[in-house]
From TrEMBL:
The keyword DNA-binding does not apply. Residues 1-18 form the signal peptide. This is Amidase. Keywords: Signal. The keyword Metal-binding does not apply. Pfam families: Amidase. Residues 141-538 form the Amidase domain. SUPFAM superfamilies: Amidase signature (AS) enzymes.
Length: 558
């Protein structure tokens, strides 16, 4: 009995003389026989090879449990998850609308380029002026970008499905409306793509994974609906690493256009690659633990991860209900702001309870002086030695020259690493049927770090430890709020502790191109903002991009 409980609880406790006693030290090495016995209590039937692969993950989880137990948790600390007893129709009835995001800054005169291929790297704002002034039609732009997608996808492997028929239908409608004087705004007639974990009625939604490659969902995701309302034209469903991990999917490995021998990172792999290569003006991706910021870096685009709950995830594949976030990848911070305004214009979405938490609607803040912003920087992170340090320090110097006073800032002492199994536990729940049916064996990657093994491992996470992790997450949220008190934004190297931390606290972030490596690959730096204050964050990012030209660089595709 003691052996079974050790396996089941992985060090939580043991029984002694009929009393429940906390175990002072972790049990011995986790073994296959131990797991074979434990899984009987869960009604599981993994084979010995599968159990052997889970052992390393379970040891890591146990280390996290031990770290969590050292964090004082008074009874008053509730988990960082919520319960809403209202049925969907009641939530819908109480929603307030979104509304206009305000005025964009004036744009100069935009003309068609002498070389039509240069349109590939025009911003959304520039293309919208061409459409608004009737210098080009949406149908012509759609034809242009579809041709580029078809030409370069064989090199980049960034497209799963072209929505060509729908695209031409929407483009023709946009042209007719613009001609009639019914201009909807800066996305009217602009082609775009979505990561193929968002549903689009009439087209496959594959989630990048073999078991789902023929899946058709009879609904439009919220982001597809809202961009359609803004007049944008859906032309492609783009690749993602299988079930939103990495850049390998059932059709191969998505590449960065800066070096097609290298992957584009993930999991918004196709969204970043297509935008970087000038195959689309913008695309929609998602992030749970780096899936917008990381491919933005690999591909040299501007990627915005909005505040958790800012953009509806209805109609999107769920990986982690308490961490998933949707956002745009584009050429500039201004373009990201335009897309975010469209995604949030209708206000909260009852289908996604997280959207009902936002205390305000998104508004442009480009008219504000960035000199009035209080901006921090994580000095400890910049003081370390890392490959892109020179580019990052140069970014800080540009901001100082713009009149921004950079104030040293420290992040909370609590380590976010011990919370990582929150994601894997929720992911295992989201794909429970895939795991128990054995269909996970059809997936492309089958190594110890791939989803099949991670999901199996996560079946052994005790419910108590998951809830305790969510309670520690509540402490982390409060500590982050205290550390950021009085700040509008802060700056950090892209791949720092802040990346994991803020995915747990829900803060918005934007990755900005800020140079190239010696090998000619792009680098980024990350600006982060207060919860629901994307306006100020994007204003600071735009000021940096207006003062530099890194966002205007593009790869030399052949």
């Amino acid at each position: 009995m003691k052996k079974i409980l050790s396996a089941l609880l992985l060090g939580t406790a043991c029984f002694a003389t009929g009393a429940f006693v906390a175990r002072p030290t972790a049990p011995d090495e986790i073994t296959v026989p131990m797991l074979r016995t434990a899984q009987q209590l869960f009604g599981l039937n993994f084979n010995d090879a599968q159990l052997d692969s889970t052992r390393r993950n379970l040891s890591g989880y146990r280390d996290s449990y031990e770290a969590l137990r050292k964090v004082p948790l008074p009874n008053s600390v509730a988990p960082a998850v919520g319960f809403d007893p209202r049925p969907l129709h009641m939530r819908q009835a109480q929603l307030s609308g979104g509304g206009s995001a305000g005025r964009l800054p004036a744009t100069g005169k935009v003309a068609l380029p002498a070389n039509r291929d240069d349109l590939a790297f025009y911003t959304v704002r520039q293309l919208s002026e061409l459409l608004r002034t009737k210098q080009i039609t949406s149908e012509a732009l759609t034809t242009f970008f579809l041709a580029r997608l078809k030409k370069y996808d064989p090199q980049l492997h960034c497209v799963i499905t072209l929505t060509e028929d729908l695209a031409y239908q929407q483009a023709k409608q946009a042209d007719a409306e613009i001609k009639a004087g019914r201009y909807r705004g800066p996305l009217h007639g602009i082609p775009f793509g979505v990561k193929d974990l968002f549903s689009a009625k009439g087209y496959k939604t594959t989630w990048g994974s073999v078991p789902f490659k023929e899946q058709v969902l009879d609904e439009d995701a919220a982001v597809v609906e809202r961009l359609r309302e803004a007049g944008a034209v859906l032309v492609a469903k783009l690749t993602l690493g299988e079930l939103a991990q990495g850049d390998v999917w059932f059709g191969g490995k998505t590449r960065t256009p800066w070096d097609v021998t290298k992957g584009s990172s993930g999991s918004s792999a196709g969204s970043a690659s297509a935008v970087a290569a000038g195959l689309l003006p913008f695309a929609i991706g998602t992030e749970t633990l780096g899936s917008i910021l990381s491919p933005s870096t690999a591909c040299g685009v501007t990627g915005l991860r909005p505040t958790y709950g800012r953009v509806s995830r209805a109609g999107a594949m769920a990986l982690s209900w308490t961490m998933d976030k949707a956002g745009p990848l584009a050429r500039s911070a201004e373009d990201c702001a335009i897309v975010l305004a469209a995604l949030t214009a209708a206000g909260p979405d009852a289908r996604d309870p997280a959207t009902m938490l936002a205390p305000n609607r998104f508004e442009y803040a480009f008219g504000n002086s960035i000199k009035k912003l209080r901006v921090g920087y994580i000095k400890k992170a910049f003081d370390q030695d890392y490959p892109t340090k020179a580019n990052d320090l140069a970014t800080l110097e540009v901001l100082r020259k713009l009149g921004v006073e950079l104030v040293p800032l420290e992040l909370p002492a609590l380590s976010p690493g011990m919370l990582r199994f929150i994601l894997t536990a929720e992911g295992a729940a989201a794909f429970d049927d895939l795991t128990r049916s054995g269909r996970d064996g059809q997936m492309v990657l089958q190594n110890r770090s791939a989803w099949p093994n991670t999901f199996r491992s996560s079946r052994f996470i005790p419910a108590v430890e998951y809830i305790q992790a969510q309670r520690v997450r509540s402490l982390l949220i409060e500590q982050m709020d205290a550390q950021l008190k009085g700040f509008d934004c802060y700056i950090t190297p892209t791949f720092s502790t802040s990346l994991v931390l803020t995915n747990f606290t829900g803060h918005p972030a934007i990755a900005l191109p800020n140079g190239l490596t010696a090998a000619g690959l792009p680098t980024t730096i990350t600006f982060l903002g207060q919860l629901y204050e994307e306006g100020k964050l994007l204003a600071l990012a735009k000021a940096y991009q207006d003062a530099t030209s890194f966002d205007e660089k593009h790869p030399p595709l052949q």
